[in-house]
Each structure stands twice: as structure tokens, then as C-alpha cells.
Amino acid sequence: QVQLVEAGGGLVQAGGSLRLSCAASGRTFTSYTMGWFRQAPGKEREFVATVSWSAGSTYYAGSVKGRFTISRDNAKNTVYLQMNSLKPEDTAIYYCAASKFDATRYVGAYEYWGQGTQVTVSS
Q: Which residue in 4, 58, 59, 71 has its CB near the most CB atoms, within 10 A?
């Protein structure tokens, strides 16, 4: 079992930055791929970024590549999403998730999910 709790969401002006964190409980945290997904109003949940358990593999959605950075600190059982140059279209609820598969962008591969944290980017 893995329990995930996100934090760091909020309201920010376009061009600003936020850093999301996801704290995980469970002794097997380091064996899981971690991912970030987001869901905007009226849209399906979409992939944002993922990092393997060893941090050796990362993937990003094309819409965030170059602006967002995913990282993990296994000693703290925490994964982060640094979001820079935020745009209004980044507005969504952001979810942290854990998968037994290696660095995957597919939502169906993730079995544990956090409650989500709201990110709102104003123009």
C-alpha cells in the first residue's frame, strides 16, 4: 500500500512558478515509478510527467517540456513537480500517482493516487 498526499497548489499569475510536492507513506516507495497528472474542467485526466524509482528515466508531456521538472527524494519519500513559466492553460487539479511499471505516461498503469491539489494560473 502507498498513500500519497499532494501539497503546493495555489493561485499564481501567468509566468510565475509553483512547486508541488507529493509525500508518500509506505516502505516500498523507492520501488515505484512516480507520476504527475492533471485534469482541467471538462477534460479527461492527462499525463504531465513521470520519474522512475531510481530517477534514471523521466518523461514529460510535450506541453510542459522545458517548463516543468519532476524529481524525487527517496530519502524523504517525496516527489516534486517544479512548474515554471506557468500559463493559464496549465490550470487544473494536479494529481500525484504511483505505478509498479517503469516511467510510464499511461494513466492506467498507476494504481495509487493522491487527492489532488488545485493549480490556478491567471492571465
A: 4
